Amino acid sequence: MTRLFWGIVMRDLRLAVRHGADTLGAVLFFVVSATLFPLALGPSPELLRHMAPGILWVCALLAALLPLDRLFGAELEDGSLDQLLLLGLPPALVALAKITAHWLTTGVPLLLAAGPLAIMLGLPATTLPVLLGGLFLGSVVLSLIGGMGASIVLGARRGGVLLPLLTLPLATPALIFGAAAIDAASNGLPWQPDLELLGAFVAGTLPLCPLAAGAGLRAAAE
User: Domain map of the chain by residue range?
Assistant: First the structure.
């Protein structure tokens, strides 16, 4: 069962490398949107530093949503979704394998791009570990919630429109906790409670979202 799980993950990673448009588009959106904010906010470094946590988290949230429309849609269109569900893995583990591949191809590149963008936006260097730790936990949450939402709207008409409406409200607490942790660290306040809440959010979504996603995949296949 473990071999089948990681086989699905590696399959998706190979497909992502071969057709890297989704990953490249998400990273480019993250970089370009975060880079354009200083032009909109004006030349005040203090204002930019104050807004930087929210800017980075909002841009990361929107960038993570971009590839979700194709997370399960390609398999549904070419019929390979039925084959994945017949491998012998529970549907929840099939969904978790796809979500894991999404995080590796989207969440990890966003983490790598976040450090230079944070420095560009004027965040103190001492807050970078808090930023990266929060984005690590937050990107996991975004992938889990996004995967659940993608499976629920799978096969629905205008599913690409419904997906952000379903996932954005659920992912907002992660954005709040993550941005609050960076803001607290930059002001010399305790930031650990915010990351602990974000970790609790991960602990809650990790078992629940794959179960819901697996039920969505099973319903779409039927």
Answer: 1-221
